[in-house]
Amino acid sequence: MALAVDLARQCPPSEGAFSVGVVIVDEDGNELARGYSRETDAHVHAEESALAKLPPNDRRLSCATIYSTLEPCSQRKSRPRSCTQLILAAGIPRVVIAWREPSLFVADAQGTELLTAEGVTVVEMPEFAEQAKEPNRHLSRSTHSSLQSNRTGFVPTASFAAGTHGAVDSGPSAPPGREFEVELRGCGGAVGKPNHLHGRHIPRIRTDAEPRSGPEARQL
Among residues 39, 47, 48, 101, which one is catalytic? Predict the structure, then answer.
């Protein structure tokens, strides 16, 4: 993973994409390929770049591990297949990541869920998370600046606590008549009924005629 972090630092900076490093190793830990975001063109992802350096039917991939500084993407606009789909097509059985994809460009990233559903082992190494995030610090700063400059001056963020019948808004009050997408944190484990929250679900919050916060906010 340390090598993958170093590769992430080599990525040409972008305001519209993450900087990610990837290393693929065989069952004995020997490197098979490496790649990083925008290595060969403005849209190539790190996993895609690394896999492109190997034969399509390389038998070593059936016992390989791919180390990525970020959870593989589950959807994208620039290519027909996501990195999650590329990993599944390659037959790689184990994926190691430094951190989960935040809801910056994709509201509901599901790379880990899709991989595990297909029998792939996904391991997270949080001890590398801060190093992996560092090449992407400019993204959170630019996004924050953009939110601060909206006409209302309201930054649409909120925190939630999972409850028996949904969520309770504990974030800041919002201006009336506006809708926002917010990121849920700490709401994992709620399953079952339709109105229950799932760990990575991103609901929309609408304010009523008057500014509201706390339990008066409504989930759509």
Answer: 47
